[in-house]
Amino acid sequence: MIDDTGTIEEFLAHHSADVEEAIRKAAATEILPRFRRLAEHEVDQKSGPHDLVTDADRLAERRLTEELSALLPGSVVVGEEAVHANPATYDAVRGDAPVWIIDPVDGTRQFVHGNDGFCTLVALAHRGTVLASWTYAPVRDQFATAVRGKGAFLDGERLFAGPPEPGRDLKVAVSHPDYTTEDQKRALRALWTDGVAPRSCGSAGLEYLAIARGETDAVAFSWEAAWDHAAGLLLVEEAGGAHLTLTGEPFRITGGNALPFTAARDAATARRVGELLRTG
User: Fold this and answer.
1) Whole-angstrom Cα distance, residue 226 to residue 93?
2) In the listed set 106, 134, 158, which residue is the last one of a domain according to the structure?
3) Where does 51-172 have alpha helices with state H?
4) Which of 205, 208, 235, 253 is nearest to 99 (CA)?
5) Which of 246, 280, 271, 248 is nearest to 260 (CA)?
6) Treating both helix axes as pointing N-terminal to C-terminal, what angle do 226-238 and 204-212 enclose, rounded to 10 degrees?
């Protein structure tokens, strides 16, 4: 069993391309053939009408679970759909084994409605630290990767988020009100102020990619499911960005974060958004 970060780094040096290939194949086999072709019986609700799951989600996650586990013996998987079926599965994020964190279709609502704003998210973490991430938007043919300490890349080109342009409003993607508590709503309402241009978020993974590319300045999110955030947060970090919770600490994929939290294209922007959230 792989049980130390050094060995995982060796795995990444030799097998990152294999992980990317597995993700591309899962999308090509299970996701893209169903895009804009979903039958009614292939779509179900989970917690409500805004929380959807499709056969593409389930089958892509199953395929990735099998292939990624085989690539890295001794690793375990935390996938969104597996956790929905058995919440105890989530405990592996806090365990000692290397863990693959998978969101097979991030932005399922967009996928169901025929919008190309969805992606597949995979992260590899160990003892609470995200070591590598893969973000694939198959319809847009965009593939972003990051390895801790080695940078963030989109289709092979290095990503540098950089600071926002001085003097303009900050572009901030914000959690949909359906996914927030009353306290979180109050905190998020503080972003509706001079110098900030908030909007509702889409796919979390694509919002993080937009930050890493310098297209969006920050996000303010109210939930902490690791499959939505692990891949994107590393991508943002490796592009020069930062993330903070309400207590001013970095977001932890193991949970227990003070919410909402922010991720931003640079540390100064993260602090500014965090300060606004604390005034809410």
Assistant:
1) 8
2) 158
3) 55-71, 80-85, 108-112
4) 253
5) 246
6) 10
Given a contact cutoff of 8 angstroms between Cβ atoms, the answer to whether 237 and 264 are in contact is no
For residue 207, give the 3-state DSSP assignment. helix
Site of tokens 């989970």:
46
Query: Same structural domain for residues 193 and 69?
Result: no
Q: In the numeric block, which tokens belong to residue 229?
A: 């955030």
Answer for the pair 123, 232: CB distance below 8 angstroms, yes or no.
Answer: no
Q: Is 106 annotated as a binding residue?
A: yes
Helices 55-71 + 5-26 axis angle, to 10: 140
* CA–CA dist 274, 150 (Å, integer): 27
Write the single-letter amino acid at 130: V
Tell me, what DSSP letter sits at residue 93? G
Closest CA to 103 of 156, 53, 42: 53
Whether residues 131 and 177 fall in one domain: no
125 beta partners: 99, 130
Number of structural domains, the chain? 2
Whose tokens are 């704003």? That residue is: 117
* Residue in the structure block whose two tokens are 């300045």: 217
**10 in a labelled binding site:** no
Residues 146 and 60 in one domain: yes
The residue to which tokens 């009100």 are assigned = 177
pLDDT (tens, 9 = 90+) of the chain, 280 residues, equals 454 556 899 999 999 999 999 999 999 999 999 999 988 888 878 766 667 789 999 999 999 999 999 999 999 999 999 999 999 999 999 999 999 999 999 999 999 999 999 999 999 999 999 999 999 999 999 999 999 999 999 999 999 999 999 999 999 999 987 778 899 999 999 999 999 999 999 999 999 999 999 999 999 999 999 999 999 999 999 999 999 999 999 999 999 999 999 999 999 999 999 999 999 7
